[in-house]
Amino acid sequence: MELPYRSLRVADMMDVSRHILEKIVALRPKEKVLVVGDFTSSLNIIESLAGGAEWIGAEPIVMIIKNPPYPGKYDIPTPVLGAIRESDCTIQVTANSFAHTIASKLAMEKTDARPNGGVWVSMQGVTETNLITGGIKATGTSRVKQITEKAANALRGKKCRITSEVGTDVTFELSGEIFGEWGEPKPRPVFHMVPSGEAGNEPVPNSVNGTIVVDGIQEGLIPLRWPYDHPIRYDLKDGRITRVYGGRAAEAFRKLIFDIGDEGAKYLGEFAIGTNPDATTTGALQEDKHVLGTIHFSPGDGNHFNHSILHLDGVLLNPNVEIDDKTIIDKGESKFI
User: Fold this and answer.
1) pLDDT for 224 beyond 90
2) Which CATH architecture has domain 8-132?
3) What's the pLDDT at 7?
């Protein structure tokens, strides 16, 4: 079979694409795979995913859309929703995520054509470097599973305090809604993040007080690139973001929260720690938030308590994390392993 290589770089990425489709998605021959990109997406990544699907014997479909306006909930073009509904697996490689829209539900729901449901794969903002090196090959492995399970156990508690040398000092109550994601193959319908590796305990929204300093990448700030001119700082009082300050990146973030976002965007919907030992900090969100020893907070939509049109992951590098006065991360070093 002649593979559709445009370059040797695509050939290198093809191996990783096959790992994603075979080991994580469990794609089968003759299934339809939809790859959705935007005008910022790497055509090499799109081609490698489509070529990997063809190598397996599946039917690849590619759609390019206008870059989603922000990470969260918004209207998806009807032709895209139609293609998602008819595909067995949808892979999103757009710069901004649209996993929190109706699209992911349509991708996974059970239909006559796919009675077991479908697969949604979030790979927003993934770069060519991420596809060749980093955390993707570790996604779905027993090593990441073991670390993620230990992280989830370490997060069992009632109170959390997070500090950092760049100025983070925030406390909050933990809801007990604990989750772990490591990319394991699951029965359909299934939602995957690639690369993956994180564990979280959703914060009680009204309990958050203090200052958060995002010195890693912050979701939703395209076309700004990390590292930013200054870290993004925001203060919270009784759960609500009251002030955002810093440089250009902070101003863009402030506009997202206060001008575009609804009331729910001003509260935290997620707190999680990275558990992938092979992931590296590259300025690509989907890789960076899964780096072992990092954490991320997400103002906006959560799984249980907080709801919003936005979901804005922001990565903190080298944090100190205490659960019920016990240190589980010390300056980015994971103590729970």
Assistant:
1) yes
2) Alpha-Beta Complex (3.90)
3) 58
